[in-house]
Amino acid sequence: MQIPNLTEAKKRSNQEIFIKTDEYIVKEDLKKLGIGKHYFVKTYGCQMNEHDGENIKAILEDMSFTECETMEEADVILLNTCAIRENAHNKVFGYLGRVKHLKESKPNVIAGICGCMAQEEVVVEEIMKKHKYLDFVFGTHNIHELPMILNHTIETKSQQIQVYSKEGDIIENIPVKRTSQYKAWVNIMYGCDKFCTYCIVPYTRGKQRSRRHEDIIAEVNELKKEGYQEVTLLGQNVNAYGKDLSEDYRMEHLLTDVANTGIARVRFVTSHPWDFTDEMIDVIAAYDNIMPYIHLPLQSGSSRILKLMGRRYTKESYLELAHKIKERIPNCAFTTDIIVGFPGETEADFEETLEVVNELKYDSAFTFIFSPRVGTPAAKMEDDTPLSIKEERLQILNNLVNQHALEANQKYLNKVVPVLLEGISEKNDQLLMGYTDTMKLVNVKADAKWLGKIVNVKITDVKTWSMDGEVVEEI
Ligand code: SAH
Ligand code: SF4
Ligand code: F3S
Question: Is the minimum distance from the CB of 240 to ligand 2 under 6 angstroms?
Fold first, then answer.
């Protein structure tokens, strides 16, 4: 039993991080554990967590479990959770009600949770007290231990909690079951050292640890060989890639080397404005296969609030960076994240956020009401803005963001743009769907033979969140 500890999670040690290429093993007898049995993994949260979900599925398949479509058919249920805001928590606890109910009628079903919520001391305490029917809990630092934990759960028939608050080494040999055959997520770094005052991620994901560039490039080359068209380089703060390594090899070098593999499309998330260098902008502008799309979280347009958030940029420096990118990368699409109702945010602060949004006219934005997270500095800041005012601000912001999103999309009408067709459209199964180079969702009238291809699509209609189009020709 190892339970998470907030004080430990806050610490940053200078201990060297090792790269381990044989840490993940499944013992011979465990390789057959899941024969004839099914698993169901439900993932919440960011792309990084989605990618962890792909690792977890592959590990369960190494133990001979087979994936099933619903929780009700499963022998092993795993919730891969997110802790970023209160509503992420609520979703998971709501779902746990269903799990509990199912376990009452099928007591042999094994259910566990993992992911960022599992790293939270308060959550694990609650699980131990109120959710005794859960069989196991493990964290973000020990996914590779899943076979052992699962086996232990089965053997002991007692609740297993195995969560480390200190990040571990980088484990390079964890398998992956990718969701798409055409586009792939590639971790380039783990953890985050920025400690923005509202954010739980530095506690749930540990200190920043960059993967070796050789390993990243090898993974991209392998994906290209397998026919993948697109990679998205993942990290909480990708622009800081390499800063924790001794070599002078940073994000601009990595982007160059990944682009030079010749894979058709390269994307990356998320960029923190603080570490965005001119060299990076030059590289993005120079390579056709680095997509002209940048997610640049603003959080707030008020320098005063940004300071309280610990973001280390100002309204002015953010705007300068955004304009520089727009100038050097023409047609670059911009999206952002914004928090309204941060403790102490006044009407005037909020107006400044609207000013920035009006000036930059984002292609779209993810907007949130501030959610206090236990253990973070902002959770202790005085907050006298009523929720109703915060909700009003969110509404005003969303209306503006939506208006700009529609205007940005309208510029695409009747244009021909490249789209990677990656699946069947959710709104109409006669259509395919995919994304433009600028990350616009398009529902496309196209023959199924174009699946997995980058094709020229003529945009025939635009809406706020998507567009319609038809294939003109393969590029
Ligand atoms: N690493 C990324 C963000 C990851 S979290 C970055 O630094 O940009 C994704 C988004 O969730 C954040 O950009 C922020 O807008 C939002 N978020 C994080 N913590 C939050 C909180 N406590 N309350 C509300 N929104 C939050
Ligand atoms: Fe959170 Fe800030 Fe790190 Fe992003 S950069 S994950 S917002 S602490
Ligand atoms: Fe959520 Fe953890 Fe990602 S808190 S946003 S799943 S890093």
Answer: no
Provide the pLDDT for residue 475: 56
Give the contacts of 48 (CB within 8 A, at least 6 positions apart). Answer: 185, 187, 205, 234, 235, 236
- Cα distances from 252 to residues 209, 257, 286, 305, 437, in angstroms, run 17, 9, 11, 30, 20
- What span, in angstroms and rounded, lies between the C-alpha atoms of 206 and 390? 31
User: Do the Cβ atoms of 364 and 400 come closer than 8 Å?
Assistant: no
Select from 369, 355, 199 the least CA-distant residue to 272.
199
- pLDDT score recorded for residue 23: 95
Query: Terminal CA-to-CA distance of the chain, rounded, Å?
Result: 55
Q: Is the dihedral of CA 459, 461, 466, 468 positive or negative?
A: negative
Nearest to 289 by CA among 183, 437, 187: 437
For residue 49 and ligand 3, the question of a CB distance below 6 A is answered with yes
Q: Which amino acid is at 465?
A: W
Query: Using a 6 Å CB cutoff, which residues line ligand 1?
Result: 84-85, 198-199, 201, 236-237, 270, 272, 297, 299, 337, 339, 368, 370-371, 373
Kindly report the number of other CB atoms within 10 A of residue 50's CB atom: 15
CA count, 13 A, side-chain hemisphere, 359: 16
Question: For residues 473 and 458, which has the higher predicted lDDT (pLDDT)?
Answer: 458
Q: Closest Cα to atom 7, ligand 3: which residue?
A: 201
* Tokens matching residue 177: 């079951």
Averaged pLDDT for residues 277-296: 97
> Band of the pLDDT at 168, cuts 50, 70, 90?
confident
In one-letter notation, the amino acid at residue 91 is K
Token pair of 230, please? 């697109």
Q: Is the pLDDT of residue 228 over 60?
A: yes
Is 0.90 surpassed by the pTM of this model?
A: yes
Mutate to test the pocket of ligand 3, among 86, 116, 122 (most ligand atoms within 8 A of CB): 116
